Amino acid sequence: MKFKARTLSQLADMICGNFPESESVFPYRSSYYISRFFQDADTEYEHDGSTRAVWVQSVLEEILEKEPRPDARTPPDAFLRVIRTLMDRGDALNEELDRPKAMDMLNAALAREGFEAFYAEDRECYLRHTGGNRSVLQQVTPHRPFSAAEQLKRDQLEAFLGNCSEDQLIEEVLLPLLRQLGFQRISVAGHKDKALEYGKDLWMRYVLPTQHVLYFGIQAKKGKLDAAGRSSENVAEILNQTNMMLGHEIFDPEVGRRVLVDHAYIVAGGEITKAARNWLGGRLDAIKRSQIMFIDRDDILNLFVASNCALPKGAEGPINEIPDEIPF
Fold it and tell me: CB under 8 Å to 238, separation ≥6 — which residues?
């Protein structure tokens, strides 16, 4: 991945703080503090004593060209950490904590490359694509510890899942989450005409870095899935619907042909118990076992918070009003 030289030069000036002191919104960094900046960004670069801005620009070029990245359109994680460190709210200078002037300067440079920076609810700075696909560029780690603000958001979403309908689960929770995670062409079957579902509540596609396309179908249920007592009938129904999903074609209008679903997700708004997973696993053959995956309520909550999705309208309330300073 390559950025234009003008963009990298502007980013280097922001990192160095090469602006008049009285009006600068970026702190001035000497050689020592430039090295510490890149240490804070979890990299191993140390300033060699040469011209600061030229050296920083060369480091940014090296990060973009040599550091591993998830796909051709996403900058390396090291570059995302550099941007996050640059926009640390604690470095606000001559402006408010939200750093609107610094954000405007940064986005004026990044817009040239098709990216936009923003502050998420965890007060950290992230990048996203501009244009039609506004997916967030970050490594989603749903099992990391959550901040106090993120935990509040998780609790509010959990309360929403406890009261929402199956259609609300699909349309107000799963759809924005899947879009945020990079899935494309998400199509909802709905529940008005069951004959048209063929065992799938929605289907979507995911483009691999090699530009090959995988198609996914989702069978969503609002409540808990168990294999105990009469509820095993529900598990058997889920398996039957999932098999229907994998056996029926879908039409992708963008490529103009019918395709089969490659993988299926069984998504539950409640818990998928270990007994239910074992019951289903014991009835899947070797091929379909690799095609079927599970997502339960905890997975939904963690992914939703970690990927910085906005809460559904029905979940808005006092918990969503996070103060600037949260006591720990």
Answer: 219, 221, 225, 266, 280
Q: Is it the case that residue 109 has pLDDT exceeding 90?
A: yes
Retrieve residue 38's tokens. Answer: 């890149």
Element spanning 241, H or E: helix 232-247
Q: Show me where the domains of the chain are located.
A: 5-137, 148-318
Contacts of residue 193, Cβ cutoff 8 Å, sequence gap at least 6 = none
Pairing of strands 213-221, 202-207: antiparallel
pTM of the full structure: 0.62
C-alpha span between 186 and 277 (Å, rounded):
26
CATH classification of 148-318, choosing from 3.40.91, 3.40.50, 1.20.58, 3.90.1640?
3.40.91
Task: Name the residue among 253, 238, 251, 239 with its Cα closest to residue 196.
Answer: 251
Coil, helix or strand at residue 22: coil
Q: 141: buried, middle or exposed (CB in 10 Å: 19+, 13-18, 0-12)?
A: exposed
Burial class of residue 304 (count of CB atoms within 10 Å of its CB; 0-12, 13-18, 19+): buried
> What is the DSSP-derived secondary structure letter of residue 146?
P
Residues 6+ apart with CB under 8 A from 165: 222
Cα–Cα dist 257/264, whole Å: 20
Residues listed for the chain = 328
Beta strands in the chain (DSSP E): 115-119, 125-129, 136-137, 184-188, 202-207, 213-221, 249-252, 257-260, 263-268, 292-295
The string of pLDDT tens digits covering residues 227-282 is 765 554 577 778 788 888 887 788 888 778 888 888 888 888 888 888 888 887 77
Residues with Cβ within 8 Å of residue 212, at least 6 apart in sequence: none
Token pair for residue 10? 């502007």
**Residue 95 vs residues 64, 92, 186, 193: alpha-carbon distances, Å:** 30, 6, 41, 55
Q: Which of 224, 121, 238 is nearest to 180 (CA)?
A: 121
